[in-house]
Amino acid sequence: MKSFTLEDWKKEIQLALSDGKYIHLVNHEIPELKKYMETGIGDVFLKFADAIELLTSITGINSIPVHTCTFTISFGVMSNIFKKIGTQFKSTIPQIDEDKTYSALLRFQDSELRAEAAGLEDLLYHTHAYLNEIDDQARESVVIRLEDKFPTNDSVRFLGKLKAKTYELLTTSDLQSAHRASVYVNLYFRLAILRTLVLWQVFCIKERSGFDRPSTQGVLALITESNKSDLEVLTYVTETNFQKSVFLTIFTPTKCEHYLHFLRIHRIKIPTVGGGKSFCGSIRNICLSNSPDIKFKMSSLYWGRICGSDKKNSASCKFELEPVENENLNCIFYIRSTKYSDYYVYMHKEGNCFSFKGQPGPEGQWKVVQFENGSQVQYIMSPIKWPCRFLYLKSFLGNAQLYIGGTYDLEANKDQSLWEIPEA
């Protein structure tokens, strides 16, 4: 492409997007992208995020459309940037034989699905390699047919199939299906990221040339629909409801690297329990949602048994949730007594809960899932040691004795397993 200066590129953006709200593009994304184009050094996923933010602003995907023909420098630069990003993807992301997602498909005996996914991935990388050789001197006859090189039917068919299979598994109540769903989610976003990269590469090359604008707009429409489908999957994965309790308990974002890459590329924050640090930094009660007067209590008797109590303002009923180190994104916490500040809640192998001095192991590290129903916020909790063995209120002799234990039958014990965690 023809040489240009950083100031030339900034000026192009400022003239076309003169309302001033894109000043961040001029001050941040453009310098970063130009530096990346020249050196190839940097976090590839953040560069992809910068590229998408610039292109969605130019094309009007998320705003009022502008005339893309005014961005002669931008599309030339972006064509080269996607060339570098794709090459770096291929060297950064584990190859199929080494990738834990593809390995998990073998464990689940999903050999057919694995083969289809691997085939689509190869097609997309081959398309990317072909596009890398299309420079700004390419003939019109080559450029106007570029979209024919993109495996539209294959990508739409397979990702649609994977999306449907994922949706089906998300509401099942067995652990194996939940683990399989997590693998499908990760696979979906691995392929979705690559598909989006190649589509933007096709669009930028065609827009750079200025040939056949109707077909170029068709590529943009495909990008828009693909993005819409990806966000639907993301919404369905992250939206919480009781029917997805097992999946939401099993799903571990930090073990789904491609899911996290997608969030970074689109600058989307992972929903966290309680909305942030304030949830962990305050003293709380853990109350049965169905009977809020009944709270967790750490007893000084019965080996520190965790009981249910209806006593008001009892110091033994006050706790803090402490995030387990490096598990913030996974919503995994300790439950510490504020009265007996060295003691934590843990679950014995028989399913009863007791106090434990010092930070416990996985028996006392709790995956917390939050549900919102209007203004009501409810939670379910299970230990990392025994996933989906949910905390519930057990009663003996009527309600004369109330204890906290674990149950695998969440549906049958729903009213005793949903908790509220208000400030004390």
How do you describe this structure in short?
This protein is α+β, with helices and mostly antiparallel strands and 424 residues long. The protein is 47% helix and 16% strand. The protein has 2 domains: 6-265, no CATH class; 273-420, Trefoil (Acidic Fibroblast Growth Factor, subunit A) (Trefoil).
Give structural notes.
This protein has 424 residues and is an alpha+beta fold. It has 2 domains: 6-265, no CATH class; 273-420, Trefoil (Trefoil (Acidic Fibroblast Growth Factor, subunit A)), CATH 2.80.10. 47% of the residues lie in helices and 16% in strands. It has helices at 6-16, 23-39, 44-59, 72-92, 100-107, 111-131, 140-143, 152-170, 175-209, 213-238, 245-250, 257-265, 277-280, 414-417; strands spanning 287-288, 291-298, 306-309, 319-323, 332-337, 343-347, 353-357, 366-373, 376-383, 390-396, 401-407, 419-420. The N and C termini lie far apart (64 Å).
Primary descriptors:
alpha+beta; 2 domains; 4-stranded antiparallel sheet; 47% helix; 424 residues; 16% strand; Trefoil (Acidic Fibroblast Growth Factor, subunit A)
Could you say how many structural domains there are in total?
Answer: 2
| Beta-strand percent range | 15-25%
For the record, give the distance between the C-alpha atoms at the N and C termini, rounded to a whole number: 64 Å
- Strand-and-helix sequence, N→C? HHHHHHHHHHHHHEEEEEEEEEEEHE
- Helix content class: 40-55%
Number of helices: 14
Overall body shape:
elongated
| Low-confidence spans | none
Radius of gyration: 26 Å
- The secondary-structure class comes to alpha+beta
Tell me about the largest β-sheet: 4 strands, antiparallel
Number of beta-strand segments: 12
